[in-house]
Amino acid sequence: MSDIDEIKKETKTILDAFLARVPFSPKDVFVLGISTSEIGGGQIGKDSNPALGKAVIEVIADTLRARDIFLAVQGCEHINRALVIEREAAERYGFEVVSVVPAIDAGGGGAVAWYELAKDPVVVEFIKARGGIDIGDTSIGMHVRHVQVPVRLPQTTIGRAHVTCLGSRPKLIGGARARYGSLEEKR
């Protein structure tokens, strides 16, 4: 098995485990932070690898498309962690489109791969996703809605990169007399 095949397998394992634990609905937004440098064993931002970006993005995009979930891929700090997303999602959620095209040295391998693979990609500065996966400690928290909930999975790496998963839940507001429950219970 090649390194790329192993990366795809590890990605699929983590993604499937995450999606089994976090209840995404059709048209929800999933955010991906990815350091191809870290996957390959390097330091974040120092050795972007387009082949690794494409391998991971293909697995995640195919799985999410089958579930009708929008993928947003966070770029690196050199584009202020802006995100590549399908125009349909940006329009649906009113995300403001910005003028930048990700490149390997300003966006990274994952953002470049999604920009090339998406049907109608645009870049937006800010989103609030239902949850997502952070490969290589890229800090996706700013793009996950409140309240963020860490999701612990048995597998914690893809390649040589550390993986963190975040879901979210509605805020619990009120005080000692407030009651909490699922909105689904009321329907």
> How many domains make up the coordinates?
1
Low-confidence stretches: none
CATH class descriptor name: Alpha Beta
Quote the average pLDDT: 92
Quick summary of this structure?
With 187 residues, the protein is of the alpha+beta class. The protein has six helices and nine strands; from the N terminus they run H-E-H-H-E-E-H-E-H-E-E-E-E-E-H.
Search tags:
alpha+beta, Rossmann fold, globular, nine-stranded mixed sheet, 187 residues
What does this structure look like?
This protein has 187 residues and is an alpha+beta fold. 32% of the residues lie in helices and 21% in strands. It has a single domain, classed as Rossmann fold. Strands 1, 2, 3, 4, 5, 6, 7, 8 and 9 form a 9-stranded mixed sheet that branches. The longest helix has 19 residues, at 3-21.
